[in-house]
Design brief:
Layout (H helix, E strand, L loop, with lengths): L1 E5 L7 E4 L9 E11 L1 H8 L9 E2 L3 E9 L11 E4 L2 E2 L5 H4 L10 E2 L11 E5 L3 E3 L6 H21 L6 E5 L3 H12 L4 E6 L2 H9 L3 E4 L5 H8 L5 E6 L4 H9 L1 E9 L11 H5 L5 E4 L8 H9 L9 E5 L3 H12 L6 E4 L2
Pfam family, one: ADH_zinc_N
Keywords: Membrane, Metal-binding, Oxidoreductase, Transmembrane, Transmembrane helix, Zinc
Cofactor: Zn(2+)
Length: 342
């Protein structure tokens, strides 16, 4: 089969012919119908987040049709429409038993430590498949498995309550989903912060109050619009120390800032003025959980979460096209989300 693979860090991905994956008795083989290109894949290509071992087929946002099932598989059958939960876990360690499988002591990840969806087929454990309703296209199902699911988990971590206000820093794939999910969780007002005017318009279409950070200071603007109070929840999904700091500075008394964006640079915080003085909190959000996905998909099926506009482009399974998208993402030039349709 054809697969687009990371052969060496800091070099373009390459198209290769590799064997169709074999499956074990509790695994399924999926014909990939859609694979999202995520900003995390940029980190893998640059070596910022190491991929081991190489070569490796990237792609952790996957939706498709079950092509083959192992002898002990009972929950899906050939022809089933499924999405893939990319966190591979043992189901037995203390973290898995506590419902925190993203910290599994024997855990792995599809598209980073095992071959992923930039290919015609992918093999995963039965446990990692989630039914994709007929009403949701494959392209949307794929990106629900990362950007939307990560936003969902981050908002759950924020303990957002009905009637509270929210600020979302970054209106890419995660941010666009986070706006809608925040309203579904009961948010009263959602402020959407970005430096891209087009993304601010997208946020406004989802009902958010846009704040163009290239025109005005977002912290000052949020406090002006909230009569000096600030927001109850701030969600940072970009991965820049500057926007993480702005998220913290925008908090009201007892506010919670959730950081989901990935950065390896340190964050400076005025602990007295920004945390102790307000009893504010800074919360990390890592990945998402399998048990969260059925509700997320149901929200999408019912139209509470609309991501049709989030999929801004589809491309074929082609190394040149994929590398171009990754180049754009690396320079923050890309549209909200590009999906590979093999």
């Amino acid at each position: 089969m054809k697969a687009v693979r990371l052969v060496e860090a800091r070099y373009p991905l390459q198209m290769q012919e590799i064997p169709v994956p074999s499956i074990g008795e509790r695994d399924v083989l999926i014909r990939v119908r859609a694979a999202g290109i995520c900003h995390s894949d940029v980190h893998y290509r640059t070596g910022q987040s190491p991929v081991q071992p190489l070569p490796r087929t990237l792609g952790h946002e996957i939706a498709g049709v079950v092509e083959q099932v192992g002898s002990h598989v009972t929950t899906v059958e050939v022809g089933s429409r499924v999405c893939v939960h990319y966190v591979l876990s043992c189901g037995e360690c203390s973290y898995c038993n506590a419902g925190h499988e993203q910290f599994c002591t024997r855990g792995s990840m599809v598209g980073r430590f095992v071959d992923g969806g930039y290919a015609e087929y992918v093999a995963v454990p039965e446990h990692n498949t989630v039914h994709l309703p007929d009403e949701i296209p494959f392209e949307q199902g794929a990106i629900l498995m990362c950007s939307s699911a990560t936003a969902f988990h981050a908002l759950r971590k924020s303990r957002l309550r009905g009637g509270e206000t929210v600020a979302i820093f970054g209106i890419g794939g995660l941010g666009a989903s986070a706006i809608q999910l925040a309203y579904a969780f009961g948010a009263l007002d959602v402020y959407a912060i970005d430096i891209n005017a087009d993304k601010c318009k997208i946020a406004e279409q989802y009902g958010a109050i846009p704040v163009n950070a290239s025109v005005s200071d977002p912290v000052t603007e949020i406090r002006r619009r909230t009569q000096g109070k600030g927001v109850d929840v701030a969600l940072e999904v970009i991965g820049l120390p500057q926007t993480m700091k702005q998220a913290i500075q925008s908090l009201a008394v007892m506010g919670r800032a959730v950081v989901a964006g990935i950065s390896h640079r340190p964050l400076e915080v005025d602990t007295y003025q920004e945390l102790i003085g307000r009893e504010g909190e800074v919360i990390g959000a890592s990945d998402h959980l399998l048990h969260e996905l059925p509700l997320l998909l149901e929200l999408a099926r019912r139209g509470k979460l609309k991501i049709s506009d989030t999929v801004t482009r589809t491309i074929p399974l082609d190394a040149g096209a994929i590398n171009q998208v990754l180049d754009n993402l690396e320079q923050f030039r890309s549209d909200v989300r590009t999906v590979i349709v093999p």
